[in-house]
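Hey L., structure's done. Input below.
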Amino acid sequence: MARLILDTSVLVSAERGAADLEQAIGDQDDVAVSAVTVAELELGVLLGDARRRKARRSYVDRVLGAVHVIPYDQKVALRHALLMEHVRGEGRARGAHDLIIAATAAATGRRLVSRDRRAFTDLPDVDLAIV
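Output:
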């Protein structure tokens, strides 16, 4: 059994039919998302046109009903600060939400499953799986 945290990119690709979550997730895997991923998914619902909004709402509700949401707590905040220090030191910008998702994965000992190699490669203590 693997402990996984799904990046928003994987969930959006799965919604669009471009990613097969069954290939990345085993039946016995413990799957979670970060609180910031919930915000990104909810923004997708809010920004959807009237035709897409209902389908997106249904998808997000199914995802959130199936996974654990990990809050941004003190442990995640410390890991986030360490990652911010790291990326500043290397001089390579990363997205603010991406660093929070990576920090959540690292702080909870989960493998980060993403489609976005550039955002997460070479971050210390982040176990990354690109699908």
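The two ends are 18 Å apart (CA to CA). The domain at 3-130 is CATH 3.40.50.1010 (Rossmann fold).

-- N.
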